[in-house]
Amino acid sequence: MARTTKLNGKSMTLAGPEIKVGQKAPDFHMVDIDGKEETLSQSQGKIRLLSVVHSLDTPVCNLQTQRFEQAAKFPGVVIYTVSMDLPFAQARYASANNIQNIKILSDHRLASLGRAYGVLIEDLRLLSRAIFIIDQHDVIRYVEYVPEVSQAPDYDKALAALRGIAGVPAAAGSGA
């Protein structure tokens, strides 16, 4: 049976496998806001949070990016926001919203992350909302596929998992 997500209540088919906690994180090939290639292996040895959004220019995606921007100061942690937006649109968004602590990546060329992590809405060539946390040994430690693209992820649960994996006490970065 095909995996699906909902977009404004309408079922949409997802391409790619469902990622599970405990499996090795698939690598990806995306570009940053300057058009430079970025892969998961480039941040090996660090804890990574992948915040996957539909489009940065939507209110829920903006809020999600802002929430993780606040958490991006945890030591040894790299936070990525990933969308299908073109790099120049992502650069405009980052500048307009003072995004400095997270890396914004575009999956528009290859849909590499979308296919590898099972979040590609193939018919629309957009990504479904999800959160993945990968430890320093490239093992998936947290997964949240948000069932309705227009809804926010569970920030508190994701941030608590990130703190636990990173060994950051709850009081540290409590604004996040």
What would the keywords be for this entry?
176 residues, 28% strand, globular, four-stranded antiparallel sheet, alpha+beta, 23% helix, 4 helices, seven-stranded mixed sheet
CATH architecture: 3-Layer(aba) Sandwich
Separate helix tally: 4
Which geometry do the CA atoms define? globular
- SSE string, helix = H, strand = E? EEEEEHEHEHEEEEH
CATH H-tier superfamily? Glutaredoxin
Strand content: 25-35%
How does the helix and strand content classify structurally?
alpha+beta
Please list the strands of the largest sheet in the order they lie side by side: 4-3-7-6-5-10-11
Low-confidence stretches: 172-176
Q: Radius of gyration in whole Å, from Cα? A: 15 Å
Summary?
With 176 residues, the chain is α+β, with helices and mostly antiparallel strands.
Task: Describe the structure in your own words.
- The chain is α+β, with helices and mostly antiparallel strands.
- The protein has one domain (23-34, 42-166): Glutaredoxin (3-Layer(aba) Sandwich).
- It is 23% helix and 28% strand.
- It contains four helices and eleven strands.
- It has helices at residues 59-71, 87-96, 112-116, 155-166; strands at 4-7, 10-15, 29-32, 37-39, 47-52, 77-83, 103-106, 120-121, 126-127, 130-134, 140-145.
- The strands form two sheets. The protein has a seven-stranded mixed β-sheet with strand order 4-3-7-6-5-10-11, covered by helices on one side. Strands 1-2-8-9 form a four-stranded antiparallel β-sheet.
- Mean pLDDT is 93; it is low at 172-176.
